[in-house]
Each structure stands twice: as C-alpha cells, then as structure tokens.
Amino acid sequence: MEFMHGLWLPILLSAVFVFIMSSIVHMFLPHHKTEWSPAPNQDALQNALRGAAGGMYGFPMVADPKDRMSPESMKKWSEGPSGFLVLFRPGPMKMGVMMGQSFALNLVVSFFAAYVAGHVLPMGAGGPAYLTVFRVVGTIGFMTYAFAPAYESIWFGRPWKSWVFAAFDGLLYGLVMAGTFGWLWPR
Question: Beta 55-59 vs 83-87: how paired, if at all?
C-alpha cells in the first residue's frame, strides 16, 4: 500500500472528475437519450408486475434448470417474447444513494488504476513523463469502464448500440483519469 502515499490525491480527484464527467455525459450529451424506449402497454405491464420485489427476472424461465429444454419451455422461447427484466424496489428512485454508489465505484476504479500504475511506473525523482502516466492510466480506465458493460450485450441482450455508447463514455472517463494522474503523478 506504499503507492497510496503518493497517489491518494490523483485517486480522489480523478474519482471526482469522472463523476462530474459522468454527470455531463448523462445530462447533456444526446447519445443516451435514444437508448431506452417506452415499454408497450405500460399500464398493463405495471399492473401485471405490481407486488413483485425489486430484482432480476427472466422470462420465460422455469424454476428447475432440468426443465429448460422441455418441449413446453422451448415452445415459450420460440413464440417469444423472451428477455430479462430488472425491477427497482417500489417507490421513487433514490438518486442520492445511486450517485453515492457511482462515486464509490469511481474511487475503487481509481484506486486499482493507481495500484497498477504505482507498480509499473516509478514515482519520485526521475519519474515518468506525463504521457507515459497518461497512457498507462488511460488504458486501465478505458478498459475498466468500457469493456465491463460488454457482458451485458453478450449474455443479457443489451443492444450492442448501447455498449458502443458505454464504450464512448469509458473513453471519456479513461481520458479524465489519465489526465488527472498524469498531472498529479509524484515526480
């Protein structure tokens, strides 16, 4: 944990700056506005799901995995629709909690970027040039923020267009992290 001594400020500030960038991306840039569509028959859908606890659901889905290949189950899959559904707990969204969790995730990502960079790049006198730090931390940030959402597209039907948007966001977040660490790297 010796790397923490010299890198606590870039860890903290990069988390703050990525949080700000994320807010700008989601409030002002247009690409996420086309990601979601209204569900058909929303009133009927809400009534059908009323009382369901928050969580992840699949449909059609059977309780026993041995029955997944049964003719009845296969018929439901072929007739469709099929998919995955994520439900929040009933009640208004808790934006403060979600924003706090988002910031905490940014701190964790910045911490691990510092961990890796602190082990591969020298700190102190004769430390690496700005661009060297920028490349290493930027790559770590981009990979973290951009690649993780791809599994949602591979396994859970999230449209690949949505992943492209997430990858673009990941590029921005990686650049912000890279700039912050490059600027504040101990030399």
Answer: antiparallel
Q: pLDDT category, 91, cuts 50, 70, 90?
A: confident
Checking 150-154 for CB contacts under 8 A at 24+ apart, the result is: none
Task: Domain ranges for the chain, please list them.
Answer: 3-38+93-184, 52-87
Angstrom CA distances, 131 to 74, 104, 115, 120, stand at: 55, 27, 18, 14
pTM over 0.85: yes
Percent of the chain exceeding pLDDT 70 equals 99
Distance CA 63, CA 73 (A): 11
Amino acid at position 175, single letter: L
d(CA 106, CA 143) in angstroms, rounded, equals 14
Percent of the chain residues past pLDDT 90, beyond the cut: 71
- For the four alpha carbons of 95, 100, 101 and 106, in that order, the dihedral sign comes to positive
Q: Is the alpha carbon torsion for 134, 140, 146, 147 positive or negative?
A: positive
Alpha helices in 29-94 (DSSP H): 42-49, 71-79
Residue listed under structure tokens 């006198």: 125
First to last CA, the chain: 18
Q: Could you read off the pLDDT of 100-155 as tens digits, one per residue?
A: 999 999 999 999 999 999 999 988 877 799 999 999 999 999 999 999 999 999 99
